[in-house]
Amino acid sequence: MLVFPNAKLNLGLYVTGQRPDGFRNLESVFVPLPWCDALEMLPAAENQLTLTGIPIPGDPATNLCWRAYELLKADFNLPPIHMHLHKVVPIGAGLGGGSADAAFALRALNELFDLQLAMETLENYARRLGSDCAFFIKNKPVLAHEKGDVFQPIDLNLTGTACKVIYPGLHIGTAEAYARVVPRPPRHNLRQSLAQPMETWRETVSNDFEEALSSVYSVLAELKQALYAAGAAYASLSGSGSAVYGLFPGRELPPTMPLDGKYLVWDGLL
Ligand SMILES: C[C@@](CO)(OP(=O)(O)O)[C@H](O)COP(=O)(O)OP(=O)(O)OC[C@H]1O[C@@H](n2ccc(N)nc2=O)[C@H](O)[C@@H]1O
Ligand SMILES: Nc1ncnc2c1ncn2[C@@H]1O[C@H](COP(=O)(O)OP(=O)(O)O)[C@@H](O)[C@H]1O
């Protein structure tokens, strides 16, 4: 079975409080971004994980695809499997690429071995692998709360919107990024702000990580500025960075920009 785990963008992100479990509460809208890895799974004589594409730091035994398999194997009698992951989405980018691999692995194993697990059960397994993981089970725009793993529906359709994502090559660890942010109440009501025309979002939809990280990594503010100069209606850091994206409604494709050749860029339609 071959699946294509996609990335995500955060539209607004407020870190609202410290939790007793050491994590932070947040409020953010997650939307799927069709920048994808490729993950193949085949029943095999013995367990094997092979990797190509962007190198993934850390022991392959800790790879999130593998951890997804181990998690289900603890509860079900799964046969051995050969997984091959071709990594395309940059790591430490705030695009949730590792979380997507884990969630797509859970979904693929459910189908391949006919486990008949409901979406909600798969979401519960995903929550155990990472705060972002559960979003990728249903993979639809949502307003996320708590650790980023409790969702409310949101009426937001960005399908077909031209988007450019720029990854400046900085690997910003999620824990490091959270450590730089002091929790505070949300600056705006995200649901209400996102219901207004996109041109107003610049003033009313913000990401708490952006303020904390831009003073340390000046390239983040430069990329955002460049996206606005190229005509973006809205631009922002995604998640805890370091990818910065711009949205260009009304265009058939995002514009080319002088820095396209300098950084890793994803161009396309949401
Ligand atoms: C910041 C966000 C926003 O969407 O995305 P990314 O920038 O990573 O894509 C997420 O909250 C990232 O979720 P995820 O990448 O799954 O994080 P996890 O593996 O669960 O946690 C990594 C570390 O981040 C911190 N963490 C994470 C989530 C959260 N709600 N509070 C936290 O304090 C903790 O220090 C934790 O040890
Ligand atoms: N399949 C995977 N893809 C990417 N990162 C993975 C994977 N498995 C484990 N990891 C680990 O997860 C961390 C980054 O996860 P990722 O979701 O790509 O980050 P971010 O959401 O911050 O961009 C890294 O420390 C990496 O070593």
TrEMBL record:
Record flagged with keyword Cell inner membrane: no
Domain GHMP kinase C-terminal: 199-249
Ranges of residues in domain GHMP kinase N-terminal: 63-137
InterPro entries, sorted: GHMP_kinase_C_dom (IPR013750), GHMP_kinase_C_sf (IPR036554), GHMP_kinase_N_dom (IPR006204), IspE (IPR004424), Ribosomal_Su5_D2-typ_SF (IPR020568), Ribsml_uS5_D2-typ_fold_subgr (IPR014721)
The protein's annotated pathway: Isoprenoid biosynthesis; isopentenyl diphosphate biosynthesis via DXP pathway; isopentenyl diphosphate from 1-deoxy-D-xylulose 5-phosphate: step 3/6
Superkingdom classification of source: Bacteria
Name this protein carries in UniProt: 4-diphosphocytidyl-2-C-methyl-D-erythritol kinase
